Amino acid sequence: MILGILSDTHDRLDAMKAGLSALKSAGAEYYIHCGDVGGESILDQFAGLPAAFVWGNNDFERRILARYAEQLGIRCLGVFGELELDGKLLAITHGDDPILNHRLLDSQKYDYFFQGHTHIPKDQRIGRTRLINPGALHRARPKTVAVLDLQTDDLRYIEIPLV
């Protein structure tokens, strides 16, 4: 399975559309948003796609957005979520809670741990867990998203032209 991973859209619809288009072109089959979604217009882009997201520290209308996401068939995982896809166990959080981050990494339970928040791409293996930050689509230079093949463990960052 090919994952499309993005984060920190901060309600920037133009950047979201460009990032999602790049992920679709790269063959993404499932989409994960690592928080700081921003608003309904961002969630609209996931309508009809297999997708899940977590809350970021700048997602303020959580109850409203959670209900909206449910209507669109998008999984809201709260501040932290686990997914099992293609035989791999994934942890997803925004990354703004250092205690949670350490607990997840120390558990060595996960194949992958996805987080955003820093707006900086990161790929680091800590024990059995691969920590991946896709970068950001707002206040980042360059703006990036990531594509991960769960079968081959191949990770690729895609730079999104400034919009």
Task: Please give a structural write-up.
With 163 residues, the chain is α/β, with parallel strands linked by helices. It has one domain (2-160): Purple Acid Phosphatase, chain A, domain 2 (4-Layer Sandwich). Helices cover 24% and strands 33% of the residues. It is built from four helices and eleven strands; from the N terminus they run βαβαβαβββαβββββ. It has helices at 13-25, 40-44, 62-72, 98-107; strands at 2-6, 30-33, 51-53, 75-76, 80-85, 88-93, 112-114, 122-126, 129-133, 143-149, 154-160. It has a six-stranded mixed beta sheet, covered by helices on one side. Strands 5-6-7-9-8 form a five-stranded mixed beta sheet, with helices on one face. β6, α4 (98-107) and β7 form a beta-alpha-beta unit. The model has no long low-confidence stretch (mean pLDDT 97).
Radius of gyration: 14 Å
Strand order within the widest beta sheet: 4-3-2-1-10-11
- The count of DSSP E runs of length 2 or more, i.e. the number of strands, is 11
Helix proportion of residues, in percent? 10-25%
Give the CATH superfamily: Metallo-dependent phosphatases
Q: Report the order of strands and helices.
A: EHEHEHEEEHEEEEE
A few lines on this structure:
The protein is an alpha/beta fold and 163 residues long. The chain has helices spanning 13-25, 40-44, 62-72, 98-107; strands at residues 2-6, 30-33, 51-53, 75-76, 80-85, 88-93, 112-114, 122-126, 129-133, 143-149, 154-160. It has a six-stranded mixed beta sheet with strand order 4-3-2-1-10-11, with helices on one face. It has a five-stranded mixed beta sheet with strand order 5-6-7-9-8, covered by helices on one side.
